[in-house]
Amino acid sequence: MSKVKPLRLFFIRHGQTENFDVPPFNGWRDASLTDYGRRQLDQVAAGLAAVPFDAVYSSDLSRAVYGGERLARAVGRDLLVDPKWREMHFGRWEGLTYQEIYGEDRDFARRISSPEGGDLPFPGGESSVIFTRRVSEALSGLRQNFPDGGRVAVVCHGGVCKALWGLILSLPAHIAWTTVRQDFAAVNVADLYPSGHNTAHLVNGYLGPEGYHGSGPGFERLLGADLF
Question: Considering the entire predicted model, what is its pTM?
Fold first, then answer.
């Protein structure tokens, strides 16, 4: 009897972006990477070059496309760009900091940030529920495209990575958003089985330059485990 093979999903947040020191709500805003952010993604690509990926995807926003192109080139694949992997759409609050949003409409900012705010859309943008549904559809598409397992990478965004962990680990959206850390250039690894059982291997791992905050949780496991 053959062993059931999982879809091993590597999902990676883009590198450091402009205004990182006072981060705005970038969302669908096509924020540029800093030089450091590009170096982070270059090193992620180099660190994962030995993984025999069956496919490499990214969102269509340039901060994710850069990392997707570097990784796809490193592993000899064409990059598959899909807007379903975009960050949440923050509507007219795109480019504003939380402090600016809070100052503009304190009550709304509190309500949308609460556990009960999932159905409340950002003005002109998405709600958490609709955003999570979009990411779920993208994840379901991967499962359908690779029914016999394999290794797939997705270069995307912090909110998308958090939503993926919520879906993979069956966490409520607000719990995934507030408790799962995703630094710039975070590397995450999970096994997705046809039965619906999933296994987390690595959360917020770091392969980039100059130490950042040190190795992400589980980084040594990435180096020592049979993930390649």
Answer: 0.89
Q: Tell me the C-alpha distance between 104 and 98, whole Å.
A: 10
| Per-residue confidence band for 217, with pLDDT thresholds at 50, 70 and 90 | very low
Residue of 134, 132, 155 whose CA lies nearest to 55: 155
pLDDT for position 103: 81
Q: Is 101 helix (H, G, I), strand (E, B) or coil?
A: helix
Helix axes 35-47 and 62-75, enclosed angle (nearest 10): 30
Mean of pLDDT values over 147-171? 96
Within a domain: residue 128?
yes
How far apart are alpha carbons 59 and 196 in whole angstroms? 25
**Partners of 206 in the β-ladder:** 186
94 found inside a domain: yes
Find out whether 125 and 88 touch, Cβ atoms under 8 Å: yes
Pairing relationship of beta strands 186-192 and 198-206 according to DSSP bridges? antiparallel
Please check whether residue 189 lies inside any domain of the structure. no
Q: Which two tokens stand for residue 68?
A: 């997707």
Q: Per the structure block, which two tokens stand in for 206? A: 């770091």
CATH number for position 73: 3.40.50.1240
